[in-house]
Structures are given as structure tokens and as C-alpha cells.
Amino acid sequence: MTAVATRPRRSNALIAGGLLLSAGALLAVCVASVMLGSRTIDVGDLAGSDLTVILDMRLPRTVLGVLAGAALAVSGTLLQGVARNPLADPGIMGINAGAAVAVVTGILVLGDQEAGANVWLAFLGAGAATATVYTIASFGREGATPIKLALAGVVVTAVCSSITSAIVLSSTDALEELRVWQVGALAGRYWPVVLQVGPYIVIGLIAAMFLARQLNLLALGDALAVSLGQHVRRNRVITFAVVAVLCGAATAACGPIAFLGLMVPHLVRLVTGPDYRWILAYSLVLGPLVLLLCDIVGRLVASPGELQVGVVLGIVGAPVFITIVRLRRGVEL
């Protein structure tokens, strides 16, 4: 027995076709990301400095965009499913705030560090915040209910934000480092950063694909999921662990990028409906597609400078998300 009604074969074929088209579009955007920027590179003139720019700057930036976009979109999907909250995303659940407080605390205690050290601090902070949210929400006989998860996320975000503000007000170095990290960017992230977070994101994405059935059953409600043989608490713990890995790695590498984890799952449901098997697959493709498109726009509109992807996504994401919500009125989450 499945959690969603079986679709006609033709419908499944159309959805699968749309997924293939989306994958093709992602491949094209990846090529554009490598070739376009403050200096456009001609495919027929790859030599010398152009090849160096591609291999050492554009290619790692594009690879990180694919990894981070997939991680944020898939983790947003997981959070919305496990919390049964359509507004759940890394920012609301305290993950971004946890990463930020770890970065500024490390700067205050250890002083100026290499960028790689801040990646690990942010990773640990995001993971600790996720664990704290789930632990707080788990108190009581009912366990981590959707309402308690949302409230715990708000509490952890508020506490972490207050600590971060107190630290940056007392430390100029922490303020400057946080300003650079918190904007959300793919620029300036080279192969060492990609290699640090890449394995964690790949493992997290593979694990996420196996959680679709559990999310479909959780969408029916805890009581019905238990009656169908699901271990609700265990599945929630596993899902939150995967979210911690994905969000922690992506946020550590790129900084807090807003709207992607919130917007993409809603956009996907317009095509797929409530079946998490399709939602996760589409999020895996559309997350990088949206992130890289915004990164390219940021490079072109402000050339020879650039707008960071977090800024572009925030500007574009708000009206797009409002439109999606209006289109989805009455559609099951």
C-alpha cells in the first residue's frame, strides 16, 4: 500500500519526461555557468589563460553550485515532509543561525583563520543546531510533532542570532568575516572547498532518495503511519540527520542562501503533486538549475563586477514564491 494514489501510466510518463527535460536544461545551464561571466569565454578559443580560468575558477564554482543547489532543495523537501510544515526550510529551522554562531565564535576564540576552517565550523554549528531543534521538540509524550518542531526552530534561531549579534558587536574581525560569509555566494569558492563538502553532500543526497516512501507515509499522519508499520520517531531522526548533513555542508561552503529550500519544493509540487518520490527527484535537478541561473544573472547584470547569488535569489525568490503559493491554493502539501 502506498501513501499516494497511483497515477495513470501516461501521467507518470509525462512527469518522467519533464524530469529528463529539466536534466537537459541543467546541463545547458552548467555549460553557460562555465562560459559566461565578467569575461565571456569562446568555446572555440580555449587556450592559455581562458583554460586556467575555467579549470581553476569557473568549474569549481559550477560544481559547487550543482552540489549546494541540490543539497538545499532536497533538504528543504525533507524538512517540509518530516515536519509537515510547508514553510520549513534551513533558515526557519535554525540551521543557518547555528552555522553563523559557530563561525563567529571560532573567530572570537581562534582569531583569523583560513576559509577552510570556517567551513568546518559552520558545518558543526549547523549540525548542532539541527540536533538541538529535534531534541527540544522531542520532549513530551507525543515526541517531535510538526508544531513543536517549528516552535523549537524559532527558539534556536532566536538564541543563536542573539549570541551572534553579541559577538560581532564586540569583535571587528568577527563582524567582517560574518559580513563576507553571510551574504551567500558561490564566488571565491575553489576546489579545496568543493572537495571538503562534496563527499558529505553526495552521501546525503543518496540517503535522501531512500526516504521518499517514509515521507509519503508521514504525510498521512503519525497514527496512520504507525498502523502501516512505520517507526515514526526513528524515521524522523534519520531524516533530520540527513538534513543536518546536507544543509550543514551547503551552508558551510556557500553561506546561508535563502528561499531555495523553501521555494523549489513548492514549485516541484505544481508538476508532480504530493508524491515524494517525484518531489525529491525533481528537487535534485531544479535546485541546482535555479541556483546556477541566479548566479549567472548576478554575474551578467553587474558586469564587470557581480551580485552574489544569495542577493539575486532573495530578490527573485520573494515574488516567485508568492506566485507559486497563489497557484497552489487548495493543492495538497
Describe the overall structure.
With 333 residues, this protein is mostly helical. It has 13 helices and no strands. The chain crosses the membrane at residues 12-38, 58-79, 91-111, 117-137, 149-170, 190-212, 237-264, 276-297, 309-327. It is a multi-pass membrane protein. It is found in: Cell membrane. It holds the Pfam family FecCD.
Task: Offer a quick outline of the entry.
With 333 residues, the chain is mainly alpha-helical.
Mean pLDDT across the residues is 83
Fraction of residues in β-strands: under 5%
Radius of gyration: 20 Å
The rounded distance between the terminal residues' Cα atoms is: 20 Å
**How many domain regions?**
1
Q: Which secondary-structure class do the elements indicate?
A: mainly alpha
Protein name: FecCD family ABC transporter permease
Membrane topology: Multi-pass membrane protein
Family: Belongs to the binding-protein-dependent transport system permease family. FecCD subfamily.
Pfam family, one: FecCD
Label this structure with key terms.
333 residues; mainly alpha; ABC transporter involved in vitamin B12 uptake, BtuC; ABC_BtuC-like; FecCD family ABC transporter permease; ABC_transptr_permease_BtuC; membrane
Secondary structure topology:
Layout: H1 9-35, H2 49-83, H3 95-110, H4 115-138, H5 146-170, H6 172-182, H7 191-209, H8 212-218, H9 222-227, H10 232-254, H11 260-272, H12 276-301, H13 309-327
Helix pairs in contact: 1-2, 1-12, 2-7, 2-10, 2-11, 2-12, 3-4, 3-5, 3-6, 4-5, 4-10, 5-6, 7-10, 8-12, 11-12, 11-13, 12-13
Keywords: Cell membrane, Membrane, Transmembrane, Transmembrane helix, Transport
Protein name: FecCD family ABC transporter permease
Family: Belongs to the binding-protein-dependent transport system permease family. FecCD subfamily.
